[in-house]
Amino acid sequence: MVIQVQNLVKSYEDVRALRGLSIEIATGGIIGLLGPNGAGKTTFVEILEGLRPRTSGSVQVLGLDPEKQPLDLRRKIGVQLQHTEFPEAITVEESFRLFGSFYPKTLGTASVLESVNLTEKRKADVKSLSGGQRQRLALGLATLHDPELLILDEPTSGLDPIARRGIHEILRNLKAMGKTILVSSHYLDEIEALADRVVIMRSGEIVADGTPLDLLAKAEGASTLWIEIDKPVDPASLIPGAIFEGRDGALLRYRTKDSTAAIVGLGEALKSSHASLLDLRLKRPSLEDLYIQLIGDPPLVRDRAEAA
Amino acid sequence: MVFQSYLALVRSQLTAFVRSKAALFWSVAFPLGFLFLFGSIMARGNARAATFMLPGLLTTMLISGSLFGVALPMVLARETGVLRRFRVTPLSARTMVLAHGTTALVQNAMTFILVLVVARFAFKTEIAGSLGSLAVVFFFAAFSCVPLGLLVGSAAKDMRSAPPIVNLLFFPLMFLSGSAFPFALLPETMKKVARFLPTTYVVEALQGVIVRGEGLSLLIGPLAILAVLGLAGLTLSSMLFRWEGTEPISRRSLCIILGTFVALMIGAALIAPAFRMSELPGSRTIEAGEARGQVRVLRGATVLDGLGGRIENARVTIRDHKVAEVGVDRKEDVIPTGAISEDLTGKFLIPGLFDSHIHLGGSAGVTGSAVEQSDERQIHDLQAYLASGVTSVVSLTDDPRALGRLRSLVAEGKMRSPRVFMSGPSITAPGGHPSELFGMIPGLAELLTRQVKSPEDARAAVKELAGLDVDLIKLVLEPGFKDHPLPRLDLESFKAAVAEAKERGLKVTVHVGADEDARTAIEAGADGIEHAARGLSPDTIAMMAAKRVTFTPTLGVYDFDWKSNMALHPTERLRRLVLPEVLDGLSVPSGRFQAFMSDADMMQGLSRALSSAVASVGLASRAGVTILAGSDAGNAATFHGPSLIHELELLAQAGVPLPEVLLAATSRPAGRLGQRTLGRIEKGSVADIVILGSDPLAGVSAYHDVDGVYLGGRKLDVAHLFDTPAGRGTSGVKP
Questions:
Q1: Is the peptide bond before B434 cis (omega within 30 degrees of 0)?
Q2: Whole-number Cα distances in Å, B471 to B361, B506, B628
Q3: Lower CB density within 10 Å: C or N end of chain A?
Q4: Which residue of A has its CA nearest to B244?
Q5: For chain A, first and last CA: distance in Å?
Q6: Which of B353, B379, B359, B357 is nearest to B579 (CA)?
Q7: Interface residue A89 vs chain B (CB under 8 A)
Q8: pLDDT average, residue stretch B181-189
């Protein structure tokens, strides 16, 4: 096990940020950590990094207690912080040399620069880098010493899609090298696409944990079906097992837990009423649906909906 | 591993520093700006003043470099999250703190060297001590100051709270330490506060090396305190260090840490040795009661101010006992009502002269008569000095209590006298010189020497003399001659005596025999060399020049041609100045002096002594050694007063340029004694002034031509100094 956490509790003066959290993470793969602001992700990650003391519970990272052996642990892990700053007045290459000196062994500046696609920028001052280049620098510095475990806090936050894709590629390469990578993110699609395992947190607890497929299976009534037909029908009773939700222009919108059965049912209904299908669109359940389901709508939206 | 990280951090910080324009400004342009500002205000082209200013300036630079240069970058790194990123690497807080400290040390060293070099070329400053000592003192100074910046940098929360804290520390550290203005000018309570500040010890140690030319052994006290404070600051800042502004500092640990620091500083203040900088140079109070409520205006003379300056057609205004004004005399300038105006056109005014080596207890006679040994004879001889234009004498090897009695007579206004500075007894080896000369009178050797067997004895002797209010310490390193060997003071005792004297702020001058004695004395830290009759090697002379060791060659005491001539054919002037009982004894054909004179071997030896001493003086003068005129009066036929004038002639003959001859008897000896108001004619100086009939820079014989003497603003009637027995009372003073 790379990470073993049992009954982890972290209380600040009047808040319980983590309420008895337990999780085990095995070697290898990308683990996505999701949750709204205030769910306790950063607190959790910082306890793993040894940056925060815990209130109670046990934590083992790579067999070490982060609170008692922080320096030993930091030799073995690579960390990217949420708001990372580096010494500005030195170059990219000098940054690598500086951070490299903190570790007994590194992969070598040249190869890491190559792996994060910064070779061309090696002579540039850190302060002249763009947002995506900075995140790649951060990743490079986190992986410089070939750590077994990488803990990345929102590595793509604030980047454009192309820059994000660049980071995804680096993460996939790292995964291919057998690293264990714990990534927190706000981008659900990113986690869905990258992660081998998704952990969703809410109010200091883990509310879902599994492969993306397992989690999708748990998503309730999550498929949406739009159809357009050439004859007026009673939309509410048209498809058995699907709930009519309303119209989007000419399209009728349905929600169903079992989209396959709904489409088969739709075929039969059309046949019996001699109607033809003009358009069909299907949206399968996503992690986002599960996420909304678990976390709930943002309070503002919910309040407005209730008021209406 | 840790060391490698530390080095890499220092290197990257220095790289960033060198590339940063702001850093370059603060460590190059700003210090140089300060140097030129201070230099142009305080030094005004005077190299000595510039040198004196240097320790304070360097301390200011160091403290600003340590506080602004360390604390603010650290807090900025914390606020931007750079430290947070370092925190998730295996770096320890201690490595981080040490790296920041080391970077600051290097930056400070760069500034320090820059200021020293520029000051050397722009202001001709001269470091009296060795550069090695200076480097060591800098290291200790930075070691104590940088942790103050680290403490603030470790603890301050953000860029809003850090600058006020830094300023709060900076101003007292600068203003109270003696770096902004002389420590001695601070009020007493402020001086007490200053003892708690590390910068006070920094200024003290820097002054020791730069101004006083002291070696490290004399600065152990301040250096030890700096080391302890630095170590404490370093340890405490590692403990306090925060990677993130949000990390809490428990009030308790903050209290413990601050408490420890304050306790250490109090401890330092309590055990700290006395500061020498706490006294303005010249601690002997000038008896101020000499002239009150008078204004004199001396007009038309040429003033040779004793500092190298010359003013033709000058006007010197004396108010009470001091010179109130010196300038060019302009006819239109009004004479203050009630002022005594004297037209001295065609005359020359010089500062009252110093005789830097006399033995008042010696009469210059050889009969040992009651008259020779009487207080009256001493009082007479003091008048002879005044009549010769000598207003200050340095008595070496006399009874300090007897001189104390003389001083109190002067203070009570019962007697006129030149200002008497004294060393009291000489410190020598058991049976060492000059105790062999005092055999004839029981108890005299004990009175006039302290014969020490060990370093402990030596320290005790210095301590005792310091308690007798002496102005300097005289040590003796005299091996005697082949056929007359004398026990020489052992090196350890010698060094101990020097160290003890320095700790007490007393200058040390050394009677030396041969060249190696001089060398030993200089190496051990002596401030002055007396005699050197067996000649000094060029190496020794170079060393004296480098270390600013003064040289009082006392040439006249070896000039037996002159002495013999004077004894047998005294001039009219000599008859007036020397008691007949003294003079007559010297010319008795069967007397001791004439017998001595007839010893041809002895005379030949003495003649050789004179020529080698003369040669040494010539060399020393060209090498820039500070030469002081001292007569060694009190020895046989070395008359109190006239022999100093003869000494000036001998110095001129030895090749000392005439302007330097004047300095050798005025500001130089005054400076050696730390007297900044004597030996010069300038605004604020004590009005000890001699009127000469001719120009002493045109011919040394001018010193014979004394037309008048002012002592503390009073005009002495030279012609009538001896009218009352032994010059007692107030006669001889013109209204």
A1: yes
A2: 17, 7, 16
A3: C
A4: A51
A5: 50
A6: B379
A7: yes
A8: 67
pLDDT digits (tens, 9 = 90+) for B572-631: 889 989 998 899 889 888 888 888 888 888 888 889 889 999 999 999 999 999 999 999
Could you tell me how many CB contacts below 8 A there are between chain A and chain B? 61
> Would you tell me how many other CB atoms lie within 10 Å of the CB of residue B20?
15
Give the pair of three-digit tokens for residue A181: 């990578």
A90–B89 C-beta distance less than 8 A: no
Q: Taking phi first (over 0 means left), then psi (-120 to 50 degrees means alpha), and beta for anything else, what does residue B469 get? A: left
The whole-angstrom distance between residue B210's C-alpha and the CA centroid of its chain comes to 12
For B105-122, write each residue's pLDDT tens digit.
999 999 999 999 999 888
Interchain contact A124–B (C-beta under 8 A): no
* Chain B residues inside the 8 Å CB shell of A77: 88
Could you tell me the pTM of the whole model?
A: 0.57
Token representation of residue B369: 């008569």
Find, in chain B, the residue whose alpha carbon is nearest to that of A152: B88
- Name the helix (H) or strand (E) containing A266: helix A259-272
Report which listed range, A52-56, A301-305, B628-632, is most confident: B628-632
Instruction: Please tell me the distance from the alpha carbon of residue B344 to that of residue B110, in angstroms, as a whole number.
Output: 55
A217 touches B at CB < 8 Å: no
Chain B interface with A: residues with Cβ < 8 Å: 1, 4-5, 7-9, 11-13, 15-16, 19-20, 77, 80-82, 84-85, 87-92
pLDDT of residue B670: 95
Nearest CB to A81 within list B5, B77, B84: B84
End-to-end CA distance of chain B: 85
Q: What is the pLDDT of residues A110-151, one digit of tens each?
A: 999 998 889 999 999 998 998 889 888 999 999 999 999 999
Question: Which among A83, A85, A87 is the nearest to B12, CB-wise?
Answer: A87
CB atoms within 10 A of CB B555: 28
Q: What is the pLDDT of residue B282?
A: 33
Interchain proximity A85–B80, CB inside 8 Å: yes
Is the CB of B16 less than 8 angstroms away from the CB of A90?
A: yes
What tokens does B174 get?
């600068």
Strands B507-512 and B472-477, sheet pairing: parallel
Whether residue B449 is predicted with pLDDT greater than 80 in this model: the reply is: yes
| Residue B690, beta-bridge partner list | B350, B709
Backbone angles phi, psi at B239, to 5 degrees: -70, -35
- Note the residue count of chain B: 735
Which residue in the set B11, B81, B88 is minimally distant from A49, CB to CB? Answer: B88
**DSSP-assigned beta bridge partners for residue A58:** A6
Q: For A145-175, write each residue's pLDDT tens digit.
A: 999 999 998 888 878 888 888 889 999 999 9
Helix and strand numbers (H, E) in chain A are: 12, 13
Q: Quote the pLDDT of residue B595.
A: 86
Chain A residues with beta carbon closer than 8 angstroms to that of B1? 104
Q: Are A253 and A247 in contact (CB under 8 A)?
A: yes
Model confidence pLDDT, tens digit, residues B688-711: 999 999 999 999 999 999 999 999
The answer, for A97 touching chain B at a CB cutoff of 8 Å, is yes
From A152's Cα to the closest Cα of chain B, the distance in A is: 12
Nearest to B82 among A79, A87, A103 (CB): A87
HEC sequence for B620-677: HHHHCCCECCCCCECECCCCCCHHHHHHHHHHHHCCCCHHHHHHHCCHHHHHHCCCCC
Residue A104 contacts B where some CB pair is shorter than 8 Å: yes
User: Looking at the predicted structure, is the pLDDT value of residue B54 above 60?
Assistant: yes
Question: To the nearest whole angstrom, how far is the Cα of A61 from the nearest Cα of chain B?
Answer: 14
CB atoms < 10 A from the CB of B534, how many?
19
- Determine contact: A190 vs chain B, CB below 8 A: no
